[in-house]
Amino acid sequence: MKRSLYLLLIPLLFSCNQNAEKSKAPKSRADYLRNALQSDEYKNASKNVQRVKDILDSVKKGTMDTMAAIFVYNNSIATPTTQVKTVAEVKEGMKKDTAFLKSVQLKAANELASADSAKIKR
Q: Which of 23, 56, 76, 88 could be 48's S-S partner, Cβ–Cβ 3.0 to 4.6 Å?
């Protein structure tokens, strides 16, 4: 009786071990980039870009003050070295919005990879 029970449990143990090995497989760069799109940092950056675009549309229609576009851009997207003073500069900076979002995605992916690397080293 015990032997038959052991014979049934042995394949089960080996199958669990294989699943554990699959879950420990190293992630690829594409996995980290895909996970970075779900990060809070990327979502906030994307919302900030969309907010500035919406404000620029409102400025073009005349329903919002130009200072609002400059303020939101400087506080959400621009770095301290690239602060703008005119709406034309905001429009010029928004031409680089995809590069900005890509850099945020790469930064988030790098942080995810570093966190996984730290877990592996423990």
A: 76
**SS3 readout for the chain:** CHHHHHHHHHHHHHHHHHHHHHHCCCCCHHHHHHHHCCCHHHHHHHHHHHHHHHHHHHHHHCCCCHHHHHHHHHHHCCCHHHCCCCHHHHHHHHCCHHHHHHHHHHHHHHHHHHHHHHHHHC
Higher pLDDT, 69 or 13: 69
Report how far residue 30's alpha carbon sits from residue 25's, in angstroms, rounded to the nearest whole number: 14
